[in-house]
Amino acid sequence: MSQVLAIMTNDVEDIEYTSPAEALEAAGHHVTLVEDEANKTLTGKHGTTFTTEKGIDDISVADYDALLIPGGFSPDQLRADDRYVALVKDFFLADKPVFSICHGPQLFIQTGLVKGRTLTAYTTVRPDLYYAGGIVKDEPVVIDRHLITSRTPDDLPQFNAAITKELA
């Protein structure tokens, strides 16, 4: 069983968290939801509420096997906080699996580690990734070593299959 860390805040695209989390848990993995503090209630763009399990200051990359970053307006808020940027950077540098969909890859830009990586994201995020040095594709799922990215909720079946396969 792998330990998957999910980072998000309010205005996340609800299904971009619930669908991958359900797929991962159905495959026997544990998903830990993290934001600024434990036991905090977050509200998605479509009204779903989520309760965080831990706070960002209470976790260590060493304790987790993979990172999940759902989209919506959440990643743009998280990338303004150096703690989340550092966390994403640490996952990349440790070469651990990172799963991100839609606007999630916005967080990668702040890490300075996009250059040379092949990835995708929501249509408006793709130019930003390109200008940050990424090799950007317009495909449902793009896999670059342990980095798995996807474009929109329509791609969730392929994304979920890819992330569960990565941890199998």
Automatic annotation (TrEMBL):
CDD domains: GATase1_PfpI_like. Keywords: Glutamine amidotransferase, Transferase. One of its GO terms (molecular function) is transferase activity. Residues 3-165 form the DJ-1/PfpI domain. Gene3D superfamilies: 3.40.50.880. InterPro entries: C56_PfpI-like (IPR006286), Class_I_gatase-like (IPR029062), DJ-1/PfpI (IPR002818). PANTHER family: DJ-1 PROTEIN, DJ-1_THIJ_PFPI FAMILY PROTEIN. Belongs to the peptidase C56 family. This is Type 1 glutamine amidotransferase.
